[in-house]
Amino acid sequence: MNTRNYFEGIYDDFFGVEKEKSNEEIKKGSQEEMTSLFEKINNLYVAEESKNLLKKIIEYMRKYNEGIEKNYIPFNIILEINNSAIKEEIEEILSTSALYFSYINKDKKEISMYELNNDFDCGFIILNYLNGINLEEDKNIKTFFHNLEEHLKLNSKSIMLVSGTNEELTNFFLGRESIKNKYFEFKLVGINPDVQDIYEYVNSKLELDDNLKIEILDYISNTYNKESNYIEYQNNLVKYISFNKEIPKIEEPKSLDEIFKELNELVGLSKVKKVLYELVDMIKLKEKAGSTLKINDINLHMIFLGNPGTGKTTIARIISSILYNLGYVKENKLIEVSSKDLVAEYVGQTAPKTMSVIEKSLNGVLFIDEAYTLAVKGDNTYNSEAIATLIQCMENYRDKLVVIFAGYTKEMQDFLNSNSGIASRIGYTLEFDDYTTDELKQIFLGFMNKAGFVVKDEALEYLEEIINKYRNMKNFGNARFIRNIYEKTIVKHASNVKDKKRKDILRTITKEDINIENLILE
CA–CA separation, 489 vs 226, rounded Å? Predict the structure, then answer.
């Protein structure tokens, strides 16, 4: 039976009740439940057609429950959506309806494609994290889809929801279009709220005068990105305004000249600066030449090699600003993580955890510090799961995401040698040399001058002795080492001048102020 045709015309009004039955004959509980469910559907950010389809599905469940409809339809639904919050709302509406109207007799089960499960004995089945299917061996994939099709053939009392972005759904059903076309006859499509929707939500949560309302609308118009997590965006905005009693300041994007001025003001890093200038020149050439030159797309995934405190995170932020300025990423954001943010404690949880970080990083730059700790040793399947997910997403989201792996030079080389998948996807390798003694003194002076202090020559000479004494020790932190000395020196200086009043003495750092107490070094 073609349920697409059969389903046409079943929903006529708010409750879709057949003419021979009056509203009074509907059970009061059902009426209240329908009203509540339809209200939730009306508030969903899905296409209008999808709202109507959801209502029709729920109405059919009610009619089947009351004996008005005799044919059981196993609703197999494709949900095309890029927002997890909306997805979960739809899942909840469908599962709640199905259980309430006894359309299914078993609860729901979520099957992650990162951990294939061939047990479909459940009333409401959700197939999630579709990209995970590509990490499985061919025989496991074939077994899964064979069992899936066998389950779908049964027309059992169940609902199946396959959810993902358009790209994920296309890849999932690639080569399996017959399954999609034969069994998945219902499609729901999510949309993201627009500026006015966000404004109305924020406005409803706050008591604001007319001037602030205008400012909020202007702020949202300039900062809201439809591809971002709108729930996180609007909730953070409400919290900020509630606490600060003002609208956040809109940060004007820096021009390339301003970004490179900031870069050039950094001490040292001559090799890194040269690479960045060349990268920008290449991007500009490709942009200006258009189709007249056959230049391949630029692979911007990067490896940063260097010891702690050599400026890797600072440069990552600058790169994020450069790529945003040039339009290579849509948001000027840098998501900083380490292996603990990617690897979970239990089997099957690492891939979704890694995927969650990637989703937050889309349209920006993901910076993974001490990435060598992801190296797979022995039978560590958790780390291999994280790496496999990263490799796949670096390829799939190449136009939406730049990934930077950073860490010690030796350990990172070992990491790359152990995984050709990562190495083959890296477009740029940046080497961060240790700072020279003179450069470290410049960094110290920079900290002091910015704070308004002047430093005596004798203090700098003593600092040079300290640097030369400790720089070859294992935990020497380059600029971090200098920052620690700077902070300790300010504290000691405050104690040394506590009985002084002359401004010139208060702002002068002497040899006696330089403090290295409790520096942890080996």
Answer: 48
The answer to whether the beta carbons of residues 374 and 415 sit under 8 Å apart is yes
- CA separation for the pair 41, 97 (Å, rounded): 12
- Nearest CA to 382 among 359, 352, 333, 348? 348
Instruction: Look up residue 36 and give its amino acid.
Output: S
Q: Is there a single domain that holds both residue 458 and residue 418?
A: no
Residue 136's pLDDT is what?
74
Mean pLDDT across 408-432: 86
Q: Of 44, 49, 27, whose CA–CA distance to 101 is shortest? A: 27
Is it the case that residue 127 has pLDDT exceeding 70?
yes
User: Can you give 264-302 as a three-state secondary structure string?
Assistant: HCCCCCHHHHHHHHHHHHHHHHHHHHHHHCCCCCCCCCE
Domain that holds residue 385: 256-432
The mean pLDDT of 341-355, rounded to a whole number, is 82
The pLDDT of 390-412, averaged and rounded, is 88
229 lies in the same domain as 288 = no
Sign of CA dihedral 93, 98, 99, 105: negative
Query: What local confidence, expressed as pLDDT, does residue 20 receive?
Result: 41
Bridge partners of 365, per DSSP, are: 334, 402
As a whole number of angstroms, the distance between CA 355 and CA 337 comes to 13
Question: SS3 of 108, please?
Answer: strand
CATH (domain of 173): 3.40.50.300
Confidence of residue 368 (pLDDT cuts 50, 70, 90): very high
Same domain, 269 and 294: yes
Report phi then psi at 80, rounded to 5: -95, 110
Task: State which of 147, 162, 189 marks the end of a domain.
Answer: 189
In a domain, residue 492? The reply is: yes
Find the DSSP H helices in 397-456: 409-418, 420-423, 437-451
Is 155 in a helix, a strand, or coil?
coil
- Number of domain units in the chain: 4
Q: Is residue 251 part of a domain?
A: no
pLDDT of residue 78: 95
Question: Which one, of 448, 444, 458, lies nearest residue 510 by Cα?
Answer: 458
Does residue 88 form part of some domain? yes
Q: Is there a domain that residue 181 lies in? A: yes
Confidence of residue 431 (pLDDT cuts 50, 70, 90): very high
Q: What's the gap between Cα 297 and its chain centre?
A: 23
Residue 490 sits in a domain whose CATH number is 1.10.8.60
Tell me how far apart the 2 most distant CA atoms of the chain are, in Å. 100
In angstroms, the first-to-last Cα distance of the chain is 76
Tell me, yes or no, whether 234 and 145 share the same domain. Answer: no
Supply the pTM of this predicted model.
Answer: 0.71
